[in-house]
Structures are given as structure tokens and as C-alpha cells.
Amino acid sequence: MGGLEFVVIAFFFGLSAAIIGKIKGSSFWLWLLIGTVLPGIGTLGAILYRWERQELRRRCEECGNVVALHDQVCMRCGRDLDWPREALAPRSAR
Ligand SMILES: [Zn+2]
Predict the structure, then answer these.
(1) How far is the CA of 67 from the centre of ligand 1 (A)?
(2) How far, in Å, from the CA of 50 to the mean position of ligand 1?
(3) Ligand 1 centre from 58 Cα, in Å?
(4) Alpha carbon of 69 to ligand 1 centroid (Å)
(5) Residue 21 sits in which domain range?
(6) Statement to judge: residues 59 and 35 lie in one domain
(7) Whether residues 41 and 61 fall in one domain
């Protein structure tokens, strides 16, 4: 198998991972990179990856930024987040 064929195959694996990642609410470009660097494994990873849209979320007490429930640090203000008393509904519930 030549180098070009491998690049083409790797790209299509990357594309499949990117599309699956995008559907699940994650980054298209991140999964394109993972799927291209790790053909097959990246695609499998995207399939097994959690559904971002179905994740519970909560609001940062410091700045009001909405973050995922499992995040331990606010991405905007850097505040350490305790386990919340109440969770916000996932994005898909709206
Ligand atoms: Zn914050």
C-alpha cells in the first residue's frame, strides 16, 4: 500500500470520526484530528464518546457560566466547583 492510499484512508476514518463527534455535540475538528491520527481507533472513540447534549449541566456560582456537571473547574473564571445541589436540564431537553 502506497503512502497516498494510506493518507486517503486515514482521512476518511478521520472524517467518519468527525461526523460522529459532531452529531454527539462535540468538536468536528477535534475528532477529525483524532480520527486521522488514529484511524479506526478514533472512529471507535467517537462512537463510544458520551453524548454532550445529554449531559447534565450547572451554573457557576461565581460568574454564571453554564458548565457540564462533571467539570470540576469553571472554564471562564477558573473557580473550583463543588458537586452542585441542583443540576440544570441537558440541552436536548429544551
Ligand atoms: Zn465561573
Answers:
(1) 8
(2) 23
(3) 11
(4) 13
(5) 3-49
(6) no
(7) no
Question: Ligand 1 centroid to 35 CA: how many Å?
Answer: 32
Same domain, 36 and 62: no
Cα–Cα dist 94/92, whole Å: 6
Of 76, 75, 80, 25, the residue nearest 49 (C-alpha)? 25
CA 5/CA 48 separation, integer angstroms: 27
- SS3 annotation, the chain: CCHHHHHHHHHHHHHHHHHHHHHCCCCHHHHHHHHHHCCCHHHHHHHHCCCHHHCCEEECCCCCCEEECCCCECCCCCCECCCCCCCECCHHHC
Q: Please give the average pLDDT of every successive group of 10 residues along the chain, which has 94 residues.
A: 84 94 90 93 88 78 87 89 72 64
- Expressed in angstroms and rounded, the spacing between residue 75 Cα and the centre of ligand 1 is 7
